[in-house]
Amino acid sequence: MTINNNTFTGEYSYTLDVKGRINIPAKFRNDLTDDNEKSFVITKGMDSCIWVYPIIVWQNIEDELKKLSSLSNINRSFVRNTVRYASMVKYDKQGRIAITPKLIKYANLGKEALIIGMVNKIEIWDPGLLAKTDELSQKIDSSQFDELANKIIL
Amino acid sequence: MTINNNTFTGEYSYTLDVKGRINIPAKFRNDLTDDNEKSFVITKGMDSCIWVYPIIVWQNIEDELKKLSSLSNINRSFVRNTVRYASMVKYDKQGRIAITPKLIKYANLGKEALIIGMVNKIEIWDPGLLAKTDELSQKIDSSQFDELANKIIL
DNA sequence: GATAACTACCCACTGCTACCCATAATCTAT
DNA sequence: ATAGATTATGGGTAGCAGTGGGTAGTTATC
Q1: Across the interface, do A3 and B83 touch by the CB < 8 Å criterion?
Q2: Beta-bridge partner residues of A28
Q3: Residue A23 and residue B121: Cα distance in Å, rounded?
Q4: Which of A138, B48, B91, B107 is deepest in the core (most CB within 10 A)?
Q5: How far is the CA of A50 from the C1' of D18 (A)?
Q6: Confidence of residue A2 (pLDDT cuts 50, 70, 90)
Q7: What is the model's pLDDT at position A1?
Q8: Domain layout of chain A by residue ranges
């Protein structure tokens, strides 16, 4: 049973093997609807992590992008930095996806990796980098943080 | 008989077994509506405790989180921190849920644990930590309670 | 066209967890 | 008061999840 379809929560620790493969947590695979055909789109995240989208979620993003004018600055840079590196991956019988060397390098991944559910997508992090990023963001935006928390969390 | 659906009150003392399982009080289970399918979402609380939400309550939180665009830095770190420790748990035939080692460590749980109804969610505490937190909050200026009094009639 | 490199797919091992059963204590109804 | 039901806790186990490694078939290179 799942909370919501194609929706991911929780943090898991997994190992990246010498072939560049990493396991997608069984929970996440179960949350994935069948029309995704066991496939994700992996790409560069906006922090130093890898973003993993279910393909039908990614399709929505592409549709939205098509509607946006290229005159928009933010749109151009999002397309350039994110979409550019996107590639489709299907997980194997053991539930693993292969990560391209470019993305492994970008996310500074070693043997240990953290996989985090981010509601509509998944993030893959180097543990050290995530800790550092966390620390930074909490120092900077605590007031905006509280504002969001008051709005959303019961 | 229940007062309100998915609404929890009262304090109960339970034991965490060696497998990290803890009983959800029978009264709370009875208060849980069927559409939750015997499932909760457990996550880090704001004090050093564990928050336990009925699934349908958590779904509202997820829906709100989905509306936040990942283009914004603050949104990304907020979603990450909110969802990172959240996982769905279903209670077994005996009415127990399994608590992840990470959360046990965070809440500093030993064998004894207090389970407290917090209206729309449940809190799990180490008894010593709760006592200490209680003591601290008693010292807080009573003017803050006066402020609350303007919002809620008891 | 021969060889090297790579990738997709397959198999194997280990440890854990979800599920089951057992038992004692407590509650409930007649 | 007593029998039956429910609740709280402990423990065993089959099956699966996570990980490593092998190989055949495909693509790239010279």
Answers
A1: no
A2: none
A3: 33
A4: B107
A5: 21
A6: low
A7: 55
A8: 11-126
For A17-57, write each residue's pLDDT tens digit. Answer: 999 999 999 999 999 999 999 999 999 999 999 999 999 99
- Sequence-ordered alpha helix ranges (H) in chain A: 26-31, 55-67, 73-81, 101-106, 127-140, 142-152
Whether B131 shows a pLDDT value over 60: the answer reads: yes
Nucleotides of C under 7 A from a protein CB: 7-12, 17-22
Residue A45 CB closer than 7 angstroms to strand D? no
Helix (H), strand (E) at residue B59:
helix B55-66
A93-124 per-position pLDDT tens digit? 999 999 999 999 999 999 999 999 999 999 99
Instruction: Name, in order, each residue with C-beta under 8 angstroms of A61's C-beta and a sequence gap of 6 or more.
Output: A53
Nearest CA in chain A to B83: A9
> What pLDDT, in 10s, does the model give residues B23-46?
999 999 999 999 999 999 999 998
Find the Cα–Cα–Cα–Cα dihedral A147, A148, A151, A152, rounded to 10°.
Answer: -150
Cα A151 → chain centroid:
24
The CATH class given to the B11-126 domain equals alpha beta
**CB-CB neighbors (< 8 A) of A151 in chain B:** 64
Judge whether residue B94 has pLDDT over 50.
yes
